[in-house]
Amino acid sequence: MDTTLVEKAFELAARLHATQTRKASLVPDVPYLGHLMEVAGLVTASGAPMIAVAAALLHDAIEDQGAETRELIEAQLGGDVLALVEECTEPGTGGTQKAPWRERKEGYLQHVRSSSLLALVISCSDKVQNAHDLRRQVYVNGDAAYASFTTGKAARLWFMRAFALAARERLTVLQAEQPGEPLLKGIDYLLFELQEVLSYLESH
Description:
69% helix, 10 helices, Hypothetical protein af1432, mainly alpha, guanosine-3',5'-bis(diphosphate) 3'-diphosphatase activity
């Protein structure tokens, strides 16, 4: 187990996201690093190799910290980790100005439909963690939980549904291509979790 790779990824993620906080959290100013650690934990629990855990810790780095972070990731962690991070990065981000929200999400869904096995487990872990955070907020605050998102409730739930569908479609293809791959079971369960949370959010 290449724990050194994960340690390097954690150190870089902690530095890149040092001043960033979660948009939706039960208490104010929760460090963004907590989200990255939870996503990496879900990736680990799904049975993914350490290269995917390292990429999970940095999956938002290019989106949030700019395109120049590509060089940092490659220099410190190698091209394979960078390639996974790139797969998990929304199109239209990483520059001085992000593309419109819907355009970015549509482009991301296209990525998901052709993603690699390891990128898919990272993306599913990310969306499950985000969904868990949102469910906690809705449980405590009701629809006011969506106030921190500029797009509002309907758009947020649309994206969750669309992601779940796209990821399930990709999983079906990978199951046919790689029968017996243990990681597929981990992804399947992540999507089961996501659907459970989505059902809760749609009924509250």
